[in-house]
């Protein structure tokens, strides 16, 4: 039995590092009132949180381009979802009344076991929004971001490790949901505005209950 019921919409936002997931999520939050949960941001915050039992483990994983154990990530996501439902419900935000909610979960699941465990224990994914682009585009974006981001993993050596991890472990997750007819693929090589228009089109279809099979928007 899952932690959350049918009133909760969960859209996984997946794509390679630098595919534009965070940028597009920020736009969709403004348009649709989502709560945007970045697994990476939650883990980065946790590694610096005073007294965290997971701090050193998370630091080592990020430094080596490895995936943090799923129990840690799922617990952080579940806690953040509960907090958002409580806060937005009290504030009376549209789409969050009576225990309802809508979440964009960015950069998760990265592996099949994460996907299966989250779907089983927290909430089954409504859909997967997959931002696809070339490795060349992603590398260029990440190196540019690294000049100002301060992130430990925005350097060429870590980026290449992250590309390999993405291809080896995250693409099978996308393929799994594609077999279930839940993947909306958007080419994110274009401008932020063009990609946003396509992503918004997908979200509208999901909310109208019109996504009965996979979607691909080039």
Care to describe what's here?
- The protein has 218 residues and is of the alpha/beta class.
- It contains 8 helices and 6 strands; from the N terminus they run E-H-E-H-H-H-E-H-E-H-H-E-H-E.
- The chain has a 6-stranded parallel β-sheet, sandwiched between helices.
- Helix 8 links the parallel strand 5 and strand 6.
- Helix 1 (21-32) packs across helix 8, helix 2 (39-48) crosses helix 3 (55-63) and helix 6 packs across helix 7.
The largest sheet, given as strand count, sense and whether it forms a barrel, is:
6 strands, parallel
Query: Got a strand count?
Result: 6
Helix and strand string, N-terminal first?
EHEHHHEHEHHEHE
Average pLDDT rating = 89
Runs in which pLDDT lies below 50 for 5 or more consecutive residues are none
How big is the Rg?
Answer: 17 Å
Dominant shape:
globular
The helix/strand class is: alpha/beta
Name the helicity range: 40-55%
**Strand numbers in spatial order across the main sheet:** 2-3-1-4-5-6
In DSSP terms, counting alpha (H) and pi (I) runs of 4 or more, how many helices?
Answer: 8
Distance between the termini: 37 Å
